[in-house]
Amino acid sequence: MAANKDPELPDYSGATVPSYAATSNAQPTAKTEHKYALETKGREWLFIHVKSRAPANASLPYFVEADIIEGSVELNLDKPESVKGVTIQILAGATSVGQEEFIFLDLKQDLWPTGSEKGGKLDKGKHAWSFSFTLPTKVEAPTDMKGKITIEAPPSFSERASPAYIDYRIVATVKRGALKPNQTLTKSFAYMPLVQPDPPSKLRQMAYKDGTELLGPEIDIDGWKVLQPVKVKGKLFDAKEVEIECTLALAKPLAYVIGAPVPLFLTLKSDDEVALDTVSNPNAIKMHLVRSIALGSDAMEERTERRSNTFFQAGVGQAYFWPAMEGGKEPGKRVLRGEVEVKKSIKPSFMFPRFTTRYTMDLLPFSITGFAPDKKPTALLSEPVKIVSKHIPGIVPRSYAPPGYKKPVESDYNAAVGYLENGNQRFYHRGGFA
């Protein structure tokens, strides 16, 4: 994480729903006040005041699982007016391009009149009512069978060119008489469920705490998932057929926190030393964190075959590697350490009816001058992983890249695997929330 950055708070960028930094507990030390107004004929008269975790009042309000949303609604009338009622709502809905939004969260409070009060005419001047909502951890979402399921509330999701959106918002409504339309003030906010991974191995916990090197899979057996080796065949310098065995190890557990680096271990073996030297160049190794969005009635089902118009993949991060300090170069063998940064702009994994987001770590064929792989540009290895939002208290992963290490320029994952050619990236454009 960047220096002097509060890990409780999200980063914000552009007009989309802000990106999220991982959090470590449910309540911040301070809250930011936001104020929004509805203007009529050049005069502001309806206001929402709300407190959130956002870093500044100009940022989108930000809340996490089980937070209490507190604030007030204010009317400033320039003359007495007839009003049937004033309400405040917390609404959340999901939609995909070309489909109507379905609402899965609707919390409502009648602010005026209440109790012994009677609706009717409000005097000129200011009127204010406070409100308080506790965000639920679970919501009811409709299914295709015209039923409902209870499921964890998903995170906010809004990106430019995204095929689907999840919008949380605060809505203040002033109800008028039969001949006058109601007037509403709506403001979207960002929401994050809190999910933390299982603890890493004791040896990795000690390394994070003491600032010592991570031990590899040969020593820290509990700390790594070693994938089945895969053999890559290709032609070296357009002349010689060679074969290279790749063994990838991912840090366990396979649940990674937003904003933190993921440790990797890559072992390459071959009888050809020149081939090993060629493909062990860090620039030759193309490994990506890949996000998959599944839409439609089967979105929550685990399946390998999906229709291209309801399944969207994109690279959201590329691994970088460097030679291991010890045992990095032996006859017939090269060992590299690596990391992939889970960027703060990445949304966590979630399962939701008709809209589910998953992640995999994909190792693509080597790409470097002098080596031409036989395999088409599809993943050599693809391992499902989970992206989560909350650090384990006291355990914060850190980067082990060598001092002064310059990360290679990220390549375009979508172009590398040919998605632009095969039509699997049929994204639509929609602007983010204001």
Automatic annotation (TrEMBL):
Q: What is the name of the protein in this document? A: Arrestin-like N-terminal domain-containing protein
- Chain ranges of the Arrestin-like N-terminal domain: 104-193
Regions crossing the membrane: none
Give the source species. Answer: Mycena indigotica
